[in-house]
Amino acid sequence: MEVQGFFTAIIIGLIIGALGRLVVPGKQNISIWLTLAIGVVAAILGTLVAGALGVDDTAGIDWIELLIQVVFAAIGVALVAGTYGRRRH
Predict the structure, then answer these.
(1) Shortest CA distance to 75 belongs to which of 12, 28, 14?
(2) Given CA atoms 46, 79, 36, 26 in this order, what sign does their dihedral have?
(3) In terms of Cα–Cα distance, which of 14, 10, 25 is closest to 74?
(4) Distance, CA of 74 to CA of 88 (rounded, Å)
(5) What percent of the chain is predicted at pLDDT more than 70?
(6) Can you tell me the distance from the alpha carbon of 22 to that of 69, in angstroms, rounded to the nearest whole number?
(7) What burial class does residue 42 get, using C-beta atoms within 10 Å of its C-beta: 0-12 exposed, 13-18 middle, 19+ buried?
(8) What count of other Cβ atoms lies within 10 Å of the Cβ of residue 50?
(9) Phi-psi category of 26—alpha, beta or left, where left has phi over 0 and alpha has psi -120 to 50?
(10) Alpha-carbon dihedral of residues 49, 37, 10, 54, nearest 10 degrees?
(11) How confident is the model at residue 49, as a pLDDT?
(12) What is the pLDDT of residues 14-56, one digit of tens each?
């Protein structure tokens, strides 16, 4: 991953975290900051997986890479919300 790709993944990750939270049904008892952090991690992981699959550099918008990132974010939000929610009760 190039440096530019890393910073782009971080910026996109802020948006991806919010999208991941919207995709997960129900109420998530986690802070917005944790959601954004999950989004950044999901964006970086999604970029790495897309690169491994060879779909990271396509003409136009990289829809497959974006989908992979949102899926990672949704999984991350669901896991953290489930774990965090159980500890608080």
Answers:
(1) 28
(2) positive
(3) 25
(4) 21
(5) 89
(6) 14
(7) buried
(8) 20
(9) left
(10) 10
(11) 93
(12) 888 888 778 887 777 788 888 888 888 888 898 889 889 988 7
